[in-house]
Amino acid sequence: MRRFLxxxxxxxxxxxxxxxxxxxxxxxxxxxxxxxxxxxxRVVSRIALLPEHAARARGLDAYSHVIAVCYLDLAAAAPAxxxxxxxxxxxxxxxxxxxxxRPNHLGVSAVPLLGVDGAVLRVRGLDAIxxxxxxxxxxxxxxxxAHPHAAIPHD
Length: 155
Fold this sequence. Notes:
Layout: H1 2-6, E1 26-29, E2 44-49, E3 65-71, H2 73-76, E4 84-87, E5 90-93, E6 106-117, E7 120-124, E8 133-139, H3 142-145
């Protein structure tokens, strides 16, 4: 009965943190030494999970695609922190681009999962260079993640 009544209790959200500490669950391995703006579609990468996270990937091999969240660590040391970039000749706010020079230097990519071998996932098209820390992996779910009628500029 108590569990039933807990649903109706008022929820007061605590203040959100201003700083967040994250830890890598693995690293990208692909031999790509430098960031580049294009040409990722054929790059095959391995995501090598740290041993303590290997069991957390159980079941991912049943999916055709995964969403990888990475920390673009080299971008954090970039001297320029632009608020805008020129995209197709149009000045565009950094949050409206796929640039790695974002305020929090996060990369999020939905990529085909080619295989899983223990603590190593093989993916294609992940736009992250060798050694990039991986923060999270999620299965790609078309009913939530695909938006076939999404609009994009310059298309």
